[in-house]
C-alpha cells in the first residue's frame, strides 16, 4: 500500500487517508443533513442515527431491565397480562410511574402492550425467567454500575472498584471469608454455570476420557453436568478449601458420589491431583494475570499423561474481531475485578502452546456470549 507523509506524524497509508476523509465527511453536519434527505443514503443515515442513539441511551435500557426484575414485574406477569395499576399495587410503585416502566419495558421488547392497555411478557421477557441465574446476574450489576459511574476515571484506573470485593475467592481467600458471602458467591457461580456447561459440552467430546479433573470447579456444577452426560467418567474437583467441600451435597444429590472425588487446595500453592487424563478450566483463567495462568497451565501440562487433554471454557475477547460480549462487557467486568483479563481464543491458544500443549482447537460454539472453548493435548 502506498504511503504518504502525514505532516510530521509518521506515514499514512492510502486506506488510512481514505478513512480519514470518510470520517471528516460523515462527521460534518452538512453531510449528515444531506444524507438524511438523499434517497440512496437516507436509510443508512437513519439506521446509524438509531444505532448511535442506542449506545447513548443504552445504560437506561439496562436500568429498565434491572427495575423490571428487581421490582418483580417479570415475576408478576409470568401468569398472564396485568394492568399497570395492578402491577403498581403488587410492586409497590406509584401507578403513574409503573405506567412509565411498563411502557419502557414494552419499548425494549420485554413486555407487549395489549389492546386493552394491559401488559404481558414478550418471548424475550418470558425467556428471562428460564435462564438460570440471570435474575441474580442482572441484580448484581448494581455493583458494576456504581463502579462505572465515572467511566473516564474507571479507564484511567482511578476507581476503587466495589466489584472486586463481591467475589472473594477470586483473590484466593480461604477460610477467613463470611460463610454467607461464600454461599451467595457459589450460588451465583453455580446457577450461571448451567448454560456454560451446556455450551461447553456441545463443543467437546469426552467419550474417550476416563477421568476429568475440573480445576477451580467451584461447587461442582460443571462436573455434575459432565457426570450426567458421561455415565462412565470419573470426576475430580479441585478448588479452594473454602469452596470445594460444598460440592459434596451436589454430588450426593446427583447420585455421583461414587465416582466424584473432591480435592481442596490452591493451584497457586499446592500440587494438582494426579490421575486424570483430561483437565477442564471453566471460567478460571480470566480471573488471573498471565503469570498465574502460565504457572497453572504448566502444572496442568505436568499433571496430565501423554495424550491427555485440556479444555478451557470461558467468555473470550474477539481479538482481531472485537465483539460485544467479550470486549464491551466481560473485558470491563474483568477490569472492575482488577485481578484478571479477558483473553482471545488466539491468546489462550498461545499460552497453551507455551506451556507445551499441542493440537490446539477452538470448536465453534452457538452462544459465544455465554462461553467460548479452546482445547489442546499433551503430546
Ligand atoms: C412457543 C412458540 C409459539 C414459539 C417458540 C419460538 C422459540 C423457539 C423461541 C425461543 C425461546 C427461547 C427458548 C429462548 C431462550 C433464550 C435464552 C436461553 C437466553 C439466554 C440468555 C443468556 C444470557 C443473557 C446470559 C448472560 C450471562 C451473563 C451476563 C453472565 C455473566 C457472568 C459473569 C459476570 C461471571 C463472572 C465471573 C467472574 C467473577 C468474572 O469470574
Ligand atoms: C469464576 S469461578 C468459576 C467456578 C466454576 N468453574 C464455574 O464456571 O462456575 C472461579 C473458581 O476458581 C476458584 N479458584 C480461584 N483461585 C483458586 C486457586 N488458587 N486454587 C483453586 N481454585 C481457585 C474459585 O474458588 C472459583 O470457584
Automatic annotation (TrEMBL):
Domain O-methyltransferase dimerisation: 54-127
Keyword S-adenosyl-L-methionine: yes
GO biological process per UniProt: methylation
InterPro entries named in the record: COMT-like, COMT_C, COMT_dimerisation, SAM-dependent_MTases_sf, WH-like_DNA-bd_sf, WH_DNA-bd_sf
SUPFAM superfamilies: S-adenosyl-L-methionine-dependent methyltransferases (SSF53335), Winged helix' DNA-binding domain (SSF46785)
Residue stretches making up the O-methyltransferase C-terminal domain: 160-357
Keywords attached to this entry: Methyltransferase, S-adenosyl-L-methionine, Transferase
Keyword S-adenosyl-L-methionine: yes
Protein name in the entry: Methyltransferase domain-containing protein
Single GO term (MF): protein dimerization activity
